[in-house]
Amino acid sequence: MKKLLATLAAVLPALALAGQGAYNLDPSHSTAGFAVKHLVISTVRGEFRTFSGVVKLDDADVTRSTVEATIDVNSLDTHVADRDAHLKSPDFFDVAKYPTITFKSTKVAKAGKDGLTVTGDLTLHGVTRPVTLDVKASPEVKGMYGETRRGFAATTKIDRKDFGLTWNKLVEAGPAVGDEVTIALDLEVVKDQPKAAAR
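The line above is the sequence of Polyisoprenoid-binding protein; the predicted structure tokens follow.
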């Protein structure tokens, strides 16, 4: 009986993880971008160049899936050095005080054939609020070296004022910076390979 219990103790965790896969973000094939209105008439786009994340996906039951990500705010790039410096200043992100943006999922649900809705806690500028990402997921494919990869395209919109990013300036056309920020993520992830048992 003790032998049976010991065997079950060893096997059950593996069964619980069956159908699950942990995928690490491949930043060299991923982008984390944002867009916001400028003077009402145009859209300024930027991205964060340094970020990491882990997706634990259960295809059999997506509700058991989880997502976690961290962005280095100092890697912000809008292709204009002066604007980047202003965005990193206390007027906006205040990177000296709040160097990272984090996301941790609280709920994952199926949405249509290839879609997911991922709800989670976004922490930005020291403020944590729930956001929901609309996600399109690709099937698994094999990479150039036999590794397993997947792709995810995710979008959401936030009001920057909800996160304490309130700086603005009124001009003739209206506010210099829009309040609504569109976030667009194009992510490629690589599946963890099981480690060989020690001999």
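Note on the example: The first strand starts at residue 20 and ends at 25. Residues 1-19 have pLDDT under 50 and may be disordered.
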